[in-house]
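Continuing the batch. This is chain 6 of the set; chains 1 through 5 are on the previous pages. Same settings as before, nothing changed between runs. Recording input and output for traceability.
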Amino acid sequence: MRVIDMEANVPKRAGAEPAGGEPPAGGEGGNPPRVPLPRGADAEQRPSGYGMANYGRIFRSRAEGHDPSAKSELADYVKLLDRVGIVRAVPFGVSNDEAAELLQAYPDRFIGLARISGLIGMRGVRELEHRVREQKFAALGVSALVDGIPASDRRYYPLYTKAVELDIPVRIYSSMNYATDRPYDLGHPRHLDQVAIDFPELTLIGGLGGWPWVNEMVALVRRHPKLHLDTSAHRGKYLGQRGSGWEMLLQFGNTLIQDKVLVGLSTGLVGQSHETLIEEYMALPLKDTVKEKWLYKNAARIFGVE
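Output for chain 6:
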């Protein structure tokens, strides 16, 4: 089974600085957090684990897992992708500059997602154009969690307009966040509705599947022709578990929206091997033709693979 991984934890090259950005569960790493944080005496009064640091508590058990690819050399990692059938991967936890280096070194292996803030105005628009036209990035990524503003905020609209002009999809953070210094519902799928209304030509991907608002996410994907979702940061085995909140996705993802679901394996977050995570998707109660769409065909169509 061929796979396109929407969230791949690519090993760092020797000497590389760690990329800032969202905690692992955010799925939008690569840029430093831009939400103003407490300073001085106010900061000292904050309890340990406040804000983004709360992710360390929430996902402690996942961090204890084991992803052997995390410490691999890059060349060995690419061979691993070949072995497990991953034909394309969207790098996670890297800066835009690091992603550009990956695209230059392995142009037929990685899909460049330019992660750009909505808070930097036209500078961000110019960067997006440069990344796409000069460095062959294939998509824009925006994050309500990192920026502290919802996807429907007008400050993102110049970026969306440029994405339409460049004919590239936009992946948008669409999930609850666990950072205790900002609203938990910044990534609620309802914000995708207004974006899809205002930009009907724009291909949208709701990253992280909208959990815990899966019903709303599925309904919006059904409602808007160019809206899709991906499953990054969530293991396949839990999607099929009764009571997990994913029941509506399993029902309609096997029927009405089967052409609009993409998969992110997030090996570094869940601490499991690629083989294990792919097998979990293969074990879901989906038609075989639908499994192929989720794992490969839908993303291949969106990103023009083959």
